[in-house]
Amino acid sequence: MIEVKELTKRYGATVAVDGLSFRVEPGQVTGFLGPNGAGKSTTMRVLLGLDAPGSGEALVNGRRYAAIRHPMREVGALLDAAAVHGGRSAFDHLRWLARSNRIGVRRVTEVLEQVGLAGAARRRVGGFSLGMRQRLGIAAALLGDPGVLMFDEPVNGLDPEGVRWIRHLMRSLAAEGRTVLLSSHLMSEMALTADRLVVIGRGRLIAETSVQDLAGRFERGVLVRSPRAAELTAVLRAAGATVLAEPDGGLTVKGLEVTEIGDLAAGHGLAVHEVTPRSASLEEAYLELTGDGVEHRAAGR
Ligand SMILES: Nc1ncnc2c1ncn2[C@@H]1O[C@H](COP(=O)(O)OP(=O)(O)OP(=O)(O)O)[C@@H](O)[C@H]1O
């Protein structure tokens, strides 16, 4: 489990993280979303003890990173895949990490297999593509078999097959009961991967929500067409719906599900020619949340 409590971090005049609080629970993939510069990397760096908090706390399994006895066995992270010594082979890089964390060398072979780099284990990292470096970084994160994993923009530079692979890996790590925090500035990546979302902007929490709830919150109502629109409007309003007549004769109905609308119409013998749910895409919801015009304020858990 990851807990960030009232975390603030300044760099000179820049407030990178501003009173941020959220929790990341095990058994789920939590997407950490925000536009560029929102403070995602800073938050992860503080969680990993690479930066000190200005105020507040960033805890992994209830402790500060520095207080964890064998960090790699509790928390694994991929922050900057490019930051690997180019002269070593993938195997040697991981073996060095394993040794310095008292992890058996057998794990090195296992994680290289897991990330699909077994065939390149003896090659120098300097010759690796960005995608291979990402895989190596993920192998390093998995080395200590940790229960908590953090990945900062892991799909950057990956081809579509690599993106699918990451998605599958994240989901299977969460299914094993691990805590998985995955940062991105793209909602499109999260829609298929994450169960929950922590959305931040300008260092502050904008939303902590399930993917499903976010989509629901920005629901645009149901478009209904009926040759007996006026009677149907009365029936739907009586059932508690908000009904708006569109200029083209359609009705926008909010507050009732598609099935409820259909059943009510049928129950009153009113023909219906169209019933179409009009959800905003998650992408639209995200843009609306993080847009400049929106006051940055925590909303619904
Ligand atoms: N070491 C640093 N020194 C000065 N300013 C910094 C430093 N690290 C981050 N910042 C600033 O803090 C703010 C948050 O940056 P951060 O990298 O955490 O955002 P991010 O959400 O991870 O963005 P991105 O998606 O671009 O990585 C930005 O304004 C950034 O310029």
Automatic annotation (TrEMBL):
Source taxon at top rank: Bacteria
PROSITE patterns membership: ABC_TRANSPORTER_1, ABC_TRANSPORTER_2
Coiled coil: none
Name this polypeptide is given: ABC-2 type transport system ATP-binding protein
ABC transporter domain sequence ranges: 2-227
Keywords: ATP-binding, Nucleotide-binding, Transport
GO-annotated molecular function: ATP binding
Protein family (similarity comment): Belongs to the ABC transporter superfamily.
